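Narrative progress, year one. The postdoctoral researcher (J.K.) led the effort to move from monomer predictions toward full complexes, under supervision of the PI. The following entry was the first complex the group processed end to end, covering 392 residues in total.
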Amino acid sequence: METRMPPTKDKDIYSILGVSRGASEREIKAAYRKLARKYHPDMNPGNPQAEQKFKEIQAAYSILSDPEKRRDYDRYGSDFFRHMGTPGGASAGGRDARYRTMDWDEFVRTFGAGGGSFGDFDDVISDLFGRTTRTRRPSQAVPEKGADIYQNVTVDFIDAAKGTAVNIKVNREVLCSRCGGTGAEPGSQPQTCPVCGGSGQIAGKRSMMGLGARVCPRCGGTGQIPGKVCMKCRGTGRESKLEKLEVRIPPGVHTGSKVRVPGKGLPGRNGGPYGDLLLNVQVRKHPYFRREGDNLYLDVPITVTEAVLGAELEIPVLEKHVRLRIPPGTPSGKVFRLRGKGFPHLGKAGHGDLYARIEIVPPVGVDMHSRELIREFGAANPQNPRLRKFGF
Ligand SMILES: [Zn+2]
Ligand SMILES: [Zn+2]
């Protein structure tokens, strides 16, 4: 039998509620109430981060509010979640390894609000909001969008400015191509789930939420299990897939930009849509452009002659180069601003500016005759530029 044991994430559920390991029941309840009020979906409509946080708070409280579960958690740490897959712990069930392994994320999905029953939380929540909401009894598992996955991608400086297409390889889990994700061998007859007896729900003392009913973890609420396990995925409903993708990187990205590729994340649960692929962009350094926000900075070396007489320079910009006129007597450090010659703004029209900073470079390898000319020049222009600044 194949066992798929996901790496156990170390999750300190005490820190989720912001309490110490030695916190009393009262402290835990107070912390829970405070956080549940803050992150409750009704208080944060359309905010998925708050919803996720709320679920984690619920899941953490479901353990820490129950002395027996809390003791087990203190003892086993994150291994605790592994045994939550089947009602009654690891000793029950046992035929299908899929349901016996669980990590924190899955635990949250199953036992946080929305996945499982509110159970005795209903009381606390209705208490919080001054109403009674014994709502959302699970009859069917709710379709959930799959998780997003992340991948790094590095682009050249100029490509980041102009936009580009990158070719990437994505290795991820997708729904099994043979069974379509059901885990059942095509053509086999489904059987009634032995855990819930076909109702899709389980109830009773051994459920996580006290007496509340919740979605059957064995069949996921459908009430049926495969008669014969899929030959290709052995019932997991998943297979790994390596895919080559060409992804458009928009102009104006910077290091840290996220480019979303819809539908290329992990499969959803209970028929929900795939998650997304998020490309985490890194932009390579440029040999002479420096970028701050969408403004560009450039050091422009000029000769002493150009500084004294003024000049019309050719300087680089993102697309080829432009002319920059500098007046006679331009000092080192003088900055010229070229409007709209910086980086394009990401996702909207317009560009930043280019700041060209003058840097006077003395001539090298000067011959005798030129030295004589410079000496003459110095004698004809006896200036002391330090005098004004230092007074001597
Ligand atoms: Zn399959
Ligand atoms: Zn069932």
